[in-house]
Amino acid sequence: MTFEEIHNEYWPKVYRQCMGYMNDPDVAKDIAQETFIKVWQQLPKFREESSIGTWIFRIAVNSCLRQIRKDKKMPKSEFPREIFEETEFNSEPQVQFLYKCISQLPEIERIIISLELEELKQREIAKIVGLSETNVRVRIHRIKEKLTKKFQQYER
Question: Cα–Cα distances in Å, from 89 out to 28, 33, 74, 135?
Answer without folding.
Answer: 10, 15, 26, 31
